[in-house]
Amino acid sequence: MSEVEGTVQGHRDGHGFVLRDRSEGADTPDVYLSPQEMRAVLHRDRVRVRIVRYDRKGRPEGHVIDILERRKSPIIGRLLHEGGIWLLAPEDKRYQQDIIIPKNATASAQAGQVVAIELTEPPSMFSQPVGRVTEVLGEIDDPGMEIEIAVRKYEVPHRFLPETIAQAAALPDKLRPADRRHRIDLTDVALVTIDGEDARDFDDAVYCEPMFTGKGKARKPAGWRLLVAIADVSHYVKPGEPLDADAYERATSVYFPRRVIPMLPEKLSNGLCSLNPDVDRLCMVCDMVVAPGGEVEAYQFYPAVMHSHARFTYTEVAAILANTRGPEAARHADLVPHLVHLHEVFRALLKQRAKRGAVEFETSETQIVCDDNGRIEKIVPRTRNDAHRLIEEAMLAANVCSADFIAGHKHPALYRVHEGPTPEKRTTLQNYLRALGLNLSVSEDPTPSEFQAIADATKDRPDAQQIHTMLLRSMQQAIYTATNSGHFGLAYEAYTHFTSPIRRYPDLLVHRVIKALLHGKRYRIDSGVIEEMPTVRKGGKPPKPHAQEAEQWEAAGAHCSANERRADEASRDVEAWLKCRYMRDRLGEEFAGTVTAATTFGLFVQLDELFVEGLLHITELGGEYYRFDEARQELRGERTGVRYGAGARLRVQVSRVDLDSRKIDFRLVREGGSERLLSRGRRDKPGQAPAKPTDASEELAQVKKQDRELLKATRERKKAAPGSKRATGKASASRKTSDRGRARQR
C-alpha cells in the first residue's frame, strides 16, 4: 500500500482526514482516519500515513505510521474542574480530546474561564494530551470574547511585533517636503472619498470631468477623464522592514462586527496612509480616458499628492444623485457637478460591463448592528445603491488598467484569477437547470455571458436565489496567483488588485511593480530589490523570471489566498456565534421563514424578521421517508410526494441553539396534525409539473385531500393482495450523520 504525507483535519464526530500536500495534485482524495487512529494525533498535526484499504466508493482509509510535526500553536477552550481534575475543553471541536491541565499549571485561572494553553505532552494511543495555561482571556460572556477566541482559534496575527510598533511610531504625522518630490500635485483637484458610514481607513478617492472635441458649435462630448487615486502605502512600507514582515504575515485586514484586525498599524491604516479629508496625502493615480461607450481608451499611472475635498458616505451620494437640488446637495453644492459626472461615467462603464457579459447576481446581504456590549441589537438588510456601484465600477476599471500595464511589460506579479466551472460542476449545473424545466443550457466551454443570461432569465422566479446560488457554486474560488488565467465572473482577460493596499498585501505588491516599471526597472519579490530592466533587442522578448523568482511569486499568491480564506472563516465564526447568542433568547418563539437550501439531512431556513439561518432537520418534516433530489436540489416525500426546495415558505419554531457548534435548529410548526406550509411546499406525482404556489389554507386543504386519497388507495391494495407487505419509509438518518453532512455542505 502507498504512503501519504499531509496535515490532519479533525472532525467533531471523532474521525479525521489527512489533507494531502499540494504537490500531490488537487484531484487526489483526502485519506480517512478512524476514531481509533485519531487517538494519537491532534487536529493540524503533520503525519505520514499508509493507505490500508478503500471503501465502497473508492475513498482511501489510512493508518498513521509517523508523526512528522506536532502543531505548536496555542489551543483555546474553557477550563473545567471535574472530579478533582483540571481539563481544557477545546473551543475548536476538531480537537476531539479534552486536555489535562496539572493543578500547578492553571496560571490562577478559574473554572469556566476561557484560556489559551500549550501542550506539554502530546496524546498517545493510551493517554490524553497534557498542557499548561499560557493566557487567561476571561469569562465566556465578556464583551468581545467571541473575537478574542476567533483570532486565536484561526491563528490570526493580532499583535504587531515590537519592532513594527517602533517603526510606525517613528514615522512623521504629516507629509514632509521630501515626500512630495517627483510627484504630480493634485491638491487642487476635487478628489473625494465615498465609503460606508462605519469606514475608518480610506484607500481610494475619485474624480471625474467630461471631455469634449472641437470648439464652439462643433464642440461634442468625447467621454470622461476618470481619476482613481489610491493610498501610496508602498512609500512607507518597504521590503525587508518590520512593517513589511508583519503586513505579509497578516496578508489582509480582518473585519469583525465592531472591530478590525488591521494589516498595518493604526498610525498608517487610519492616519498617514488613509485619504482623510482636508489633509494632504501621497497616492498612486490611475488616470483614465473613458469613451462614451464605456471603453477605457487610454490610461497612465503616476505618483501624486492629493487633498481629499470631502468624505462622503454611500447614503449621502445616493441622496445627492437622487435630488441634485435637495438639502444634501445644498451642503456640498461645489462638489455636486463632479458627483454627477461620476454618475455619468458609471452608466457608461455599466454599458461596457453588459457588453462584455460580466456576471452579476442579485444577492441579499445583511449587516449586524451591535449594542455597547458587543451583542447583536438587530440584523438589517444591506441595500446597494448607485453610489456603491459607482465606486465598484471605478475600482474595477483601475484594477484592469493595472493588470494591462503589468502584463504589457511582461513583468511577474500577482493576478486575481477566477476560473469558470470545472467539467463536473458544469454537468451538475446542466442537470439542475434541466430538472427545473428551464430551456437554458451551458455550453462545453461556457462564457460569463451565458451565466448572466441565465441569471437575467430567472431573476423574477420564486427560486431565483437558489438558481443564482447554484450558478455561483459552479464557479471556482477566486485566488491570487502569478499565472494569469483571467477573471471569469468579471469577464476580464487580466485582472489584478490595485485599489486597497491598506488592507490587502497583493495590492501593495502590485504598487511596487508599477512603481518599478514607471522608472524603467523591475521589482524582485525574492529580495525586494528594484533592479535595472534587462536590455532587450528590438523585436526581442524580455527574459522570463528565473525558476526561483517564479516560485516566490506563486508562494506569495498561495499565502495571500490562504490568509484571505482564514480571515473569512474567522469573520463567519464570530458572526455565527453572535447569531446563536442572539437566538438563545428566542427559544420557543415562532417565525415565518424561507428555505434557502435543501440537503440530504434537512432544510436550511432563513427567518424573515431576523435574517438568521438555521437547520430544519429531516426528522422534523414528518413520519415518512424523504429523498434528496440532487438535480432539483429539493427533498421529496416518497409517500405523499410533498417537495421542499429553495423558496419554500414555512413557519418554524426555534427549538435548539448550540453556541459551541454555532448551530441553530428549527422545528416545523404544525396545525391540526399537518405541517404549516406558507407557500411552495408542494405535493405532486412523479413526472408531474411542479404545482403553482398557493396560500396556506388552500395548500393545507390539498394536503389533507391527497392524504385521504392515498389512504383509500392503500386500503384497496391491501384488500386485493392480503398477503402483501407494505413498505413503510421512516426518516432514519441519525442526528450524528446529519451533522457530519451539514459540516461538509456549509
Keywords:
OB fold (Dihydrolipoamide Acetyltransferase, E2P), 746 residues, alpha+beta, 5-stranded antiparallel sheet, disordered C terminus, 29% helix, 28% strand, globular
Write down the overall mean pLDDT.
Answer: 87
**Strand line-up across the major sheet:** 3-2-1-4-5
What percent of residues adopt helix (DSSP H or I)?
25-40%
Class by alpha and beta content: alpha+beta
Which parts are unreliable, with pLDDT below 50 for 5 consecutive residues or more?
682-700, 720-746
| Percentage of residues in DSSP E strands | 25-35%
Distance between the termini: 33 Å
* Count of discrete domains: 5
Rounded radius of gyration (Å): 29 Å
* Largest sheet, strands/sense/barrel: 5 strands, antiparallel
What general outline do the C-alpha atoms trace? globular
Number of helices: 15
Total beta strands: 37
Structural features, described:
With 746 residues, this protein is α+β, with helices and mostly antiparallel strands. It folds into five domains: 3-69, OB fold (Dihydrolipoamide Acetyltransferase, E2P) (Beta Barrel); 75-140, OB fold (Dihydrolipoamide Acetyltransferase, E2P) (Beta Barrel); 162-417 and 488-535 and 545-572, no CATH class; 423-475, no CATH class; 586-745, Nucleic acid-binding proteins (OB fold (Dihydrolipoamide Acetyltransferase, E2P)). The protein has 15 helices and 37 strands. A five-stranded antiparallel beta sheet has the order 3-2-1-4-5, with no helix packed on it. A five-stranded antiparallel beta sheet has the order 8-7-6-9-10, with helices on one face. The radius of gyration is 29 Å and the shape is globular.
